[in-house]
Amino acid sequence: MRLQRPAASLALLATLFLPAAPYSSAQQPSPQSPASIRVEVNRVNVGVIVTDAQGKFVEGLRQQDFHVFDDGVEQPLTNFAAMDEPAQIVLLLETGPAVYLLEGSHVRAASSLLDGLAPGDRIAIVAYADRPSPLLDFTADLPSAAAALSSLRFNLGFGQLNLASSLIALYDSLASLPGKKTIVLLSTGVDTSPQPAWDALPARLLTGDVRILAVSLGGELRAPPPTGKSGKRSKQDKKNPSPNAVSPEKAAAAEQGFAEADARLSAITAATGGRVFFPKGPREYPAVYAQIAQLVRHEYSLSFAPPARDGHVHSLEVRVSSAPTPPGTPSAPPAPATHPVYRVDHRRAYLAPR
Prior knowledge:
Elements: H1 7-16, E1 44-51, E2 66-70, E3 73-75, E4 79-84, E5 88-94, H2 97-100, H3 105-109, H4 111-116, E6 122-128, E7 132-139, H5 142-150, H6 163-174, E8 181-187, H7 195-207, E9 210-216, H8 235-239, H9 248-272, E10 275-277, H10 285-295, E11 298-304, E12 313-320, E13 343-345, E14 349-351
Parallel strand pairs: 5-6, 5-8, 8-9, 9-10
Antiparallel strand pairs: 1-11, 1-13, 2-3, 2-12, 4-11, 6-7, 12-14
């Protein structure tokens, strides 16, 4: 298992995740292909999650409170709905050797997610290491989901953790599924996927209709400082080092690897309009999963007509200009930036029709 990827690939990933970055025409279906299907897109749908400072979903917002910008230019909304409908969730769990050390604490805590789901919510469970392995198809039978979690097995020894490749395969399998879709990813963020998978992933995330909410599993794996608050080794430690002690060099390398993994999860979730949670240990898992159970069900659905049919990737920005107001109350004028009290999550781009 590798804890790091080359810095150059991380820089490339960061560049590709920029909303306004154009993508090569080689990634688009060729219009010359006899098997190609031309689809007329008359509107762009954007699912938006708005939460307050406590992480709770903000209800009561109206169409006038939202402002959508396509490549920096505000667009008139053609449709608006406050959605509270059954969720479709894929629980994607890393089962590599690093997660084995957690002894399944994050899996046991995932019962909080199941407990928080509402009637009608459907969940599927997929494990991944070198590739995704389906454990349970979509079901509203939560006892069956709990049984599938309890049967989860972890890979021991050294192995591959192909996160990017697994996400691409999962995106492809969900493409034909209608309705709102969410991937809840439980992962350290470590990835050994080949470079072509990393090259293909940003376009899938930015222009897809699946939101990713991630829970980082790296908090429990991080080693504490060697001694006290200062982190400096005492003279006694230097004379009689512990047989399990980690050298400062290895500790620094591991910390850098975790920092890169955290940045990777942040980039992946932000591209889809999701978010990542960084619990420090098992005690924080239940609250995180309870919040996720709320977010997968609620969102605001916005639509607008694409202003250009150029076949390019367009950046998206959504701003909220006011607090909830009672029906019949005149809306406030648009603010120059997002309401400071709210966090607004949405996908960052879409692929315009040709």
